[in-house]
Amino acid sequence: MEIQGDKWEVQIPEDAETDLPKGHFTLVCGTIEEIDEGLKQLHPESPFFQDVLEDAADNAPLGGVSIDASHTEIIIPDWLQEADISVTDAEFLPYYDRRALAVLFRVSIETVSEYQREFLRAIAIDTRSEETLPNLDQTFLDLTEPGRDTITSHEMTTEMKRIQELVDASRKPLVEDIQPTIDETHQEASRAADAELEEYRQLQQQREEELAEKLDRLQSRIEELNAMIDDSEQEDRVEALKERRDRKSDQEDIESELTKLRQQREQGYPEQQREIRNRHALEVVVTPVTVTEIEYERGDAEFKLTNGGAKQTITVGYGSGVGVTEEVSCDECGQPLTTDRPLGGFKEKLRCVECN
Questions:
Q1: Residue 67 in contact with residue 151, Cβ under 8 Å?
Q2: Residue range 171-190: average pLDDT?
Q3: d(Cα 300, Cα 313) in Å, to the nearest integer?
Q4: DSSP for residue 44
Q5: Which of 15, 169, 326, 347 is most buried, judged by most C-beta within 10 A?
């Protein structure tokens, strides 16, 4: 493979064990509306990317890797990054190994009537505690970038039954993580349903007006026929009576249809609303594609802090590639330190920015 800017020149040998097309072709990275014939787009939603992913998943749906803590940077927690306090040094002291699973899911958010959105999302979960590890999946992806030789493969040791349990356990936090995307798609679908329903209301209103006009014309014609019957000769009277009978039958049919339309309008077109809402109802399908077992280290991290002339070292639970693994709270109010409530000071005890 030869990389030239945003184009990759790829050659797949004829004897390669893959279902991907053999031979030479050019990949264009990114999303392009109009692409030259013979080129293939490469981005997470492109058909070729999906083919590559399915081919890789078919060949190796399960795998295992080990993350060497010496090749990962210490992750500074948000409540320190947002604080007006300097972190002069950080050191990780590993004590024991732990295992986690990084599960890559294909997420499909769609409606009955039309496809909406499809994307990939990974989540990492500890095999023992089942706690989600938000940073570990990204650390794993960073370490597997081309040109980085900082990760070691190994055979998976977690039993298949336990893998299935963990995959099932990871679905709920994954869906919670993508809930903003689901809500956004739901809003788009709701707007489409509202627009379709409004269009239907306008068509029905137009139909009502057309029937009302037709009914007025029929009533006028019936009145004309009544006058003709009173003033006509026998032969003309018979024809007028026959036409009046037909016109009254048409009148009854139109009045019945008009009454039905008006009732539906007063009720808000319940059947049509139900049909439209059902067609625009969302279905979220979360399908596991690959599972990678990750060996990582747990221990303590020491952060050396300075604030003016004051210095202090704090020690918290930490995981390599995971970050801080325990909640740190303000010693004054007891509230956990977060991005919105960062550390404010540490004289004698830790204080959040609100209590400092």
A1: yes
A2: 89
A3: 12
A4: T
A5: 169
| H-type alpha helices, the chain | 47-59, 78-81, 136-143, 160-177, 179-231, 234-267, 270-279
Q: Mean pLDDT for the chain?
A: 83
Write down the pLDDT at residue 9. Answer: 73
Distance CA 148, CA 170 (A): 28
Q: Are 276 and 47 in contact (CB under 8 A)?
A: no
Contact between 28 and 38 under an 8 Å Cβ cutoff? The reply is: no
Query: pTM, whole model, 2 decimals?
Result: 0.69
**Which of 101, 121, 118 has the alpha carbon at shortest distance from 109?**
118
Amino acid at 53: L
Taken in order 194, 198, 203, 205, the sign of the CA dihedral is: positive
According to DSSP, residue 34 is labeled: S
Q: Are 335 and 353 in contact (CB under 8 A)?
A: no
| Amino acid making up residue 11 | Q
CA separation for the pair 117, 122 (Å, rounded): 16
Please answer whether residues 79 and 328 qualify as being in contact, where contact means their C-beta atoms are separated by less than 8 angstroms.
yes
Q: How many CB atoms lie within 10 A of CB 146?
A: 6
How far is it, in rounded angstroms, from Cα 75 to Cα 319?
Answer: 9
- Alpha-carbon dihedral sign for residues 246, 248, 251, 253: negative
Q: Is the dihedral of CA 151, 155, 157, 158 positive or negative?
A: positive
DSSP secondary structure code for residue 65 in this structure: E
Tokens of 319: 């995981």
Most confident of 8-12, 42-46, 106-110: 106-110
Which residue type, as a one-letter code, is found at position 344? G
CA 335/CA 337 separation, integer angstroms: 7
**65 backbone dihedrals φ, ψ, rounded to 5°:** -140, 160
